[in-house]
Amino acid sequence: EHAVMKLTRQSKRSCLRLLGAAGIAVLLAAAPIRAQGSDCATVFAASSKMLDVPYHAYMIDSAKTDAVLNGGKPRVGEVIAAGGEMYVLSRGKWVKSPVSMAELKKMQGENTDSTKATCSHLRDESVNGEPAAVWRSHTVNAAATIDTDVWVSKSRGLVLKSSSLTDVGGSMGKSRSIARYDYTNVRPPAGVP
């Protein structure tokens, strides 16, 4: 039983690591962002909305650990959120995440007093022809400093793209995660229980 619990925790951590590439920093930073004031209201609203809207995220993560494990290449991944569940493309196969959308909502709502976040509007620009506001959130916690640029659709209030620079310090240093999000005809992957 202890081994199963340990495996589940490791699976959740692995899933959250991959989701980091998809912009999980935006989702998990939302609770402290809300506490910081109105400068982060747009980012908070967009990240909260992603917990209720099906999406397909395509990511590239340049973390040094991923590069070492992946033959010196960045990790490329995909995540689908649909039907209250998350699915991760792992080694060419879709698997259901041990972290559900309900769990992410709970994590988002938990108090994270050790996190400090600020946001600023950088500019307006289009993503695939859709007008968007580009926001930067700067988050500091015990584990890392994370600067995330988020392109938020002006008409739909959804995250269209994100780019995060995470600095964990030491030999692991900095990593860049870039994600784009598609909201069209999103369904769970076929054949995944």
Task: Outline the structure in words.
With 193 residues, the chain is of the alpha+beta class. It contains six helices and nine strands; from the N terminus they run H-H-H-H-E-H-E-E-E-H-E-E-E-E-E. The chain has a nine-stranded antiparallel beta sheet with strand order 4-3-2-1-9-8-7-6-5. A hairpin with a 6-residue loop joins strand 8 and strand 9. Helix 3 runs antiparallel to helix 4.
Keywords summarizing the entry:
alpha+beta, disordered N terminus, 193 residues, globular, 29% helix, single chain
**Would you list the SSEs in sequence order as H and E?**
HHHHEHEEEHEEEEE
With strands numbered from the N-terminus, the spatial order across the biggest sheet is 4-3-2-1-9-8-7-6-5
How far apart lie the N and C ends? 23 Å
Task: Please compute the radius of gyration using only Cα atoms.
Answer: 16 Å
Strand count: 9
Give a quick account of the main beta sheet: strands, pairing sense, barrel closure: 9 strands, antiparallel
Residue-averaged pLDDT, rounded? 76
Given as residue ranges, the uncertain stretches (5+ residues, pLDDT < 50) are 1-12, 20-36
Tell me the β content.
Answer: 35-45%
Shape: globular
Helix/strand class:
alpha+beta
Instruction: Please work out how many helical segments DSSP would assign.
Output: 6
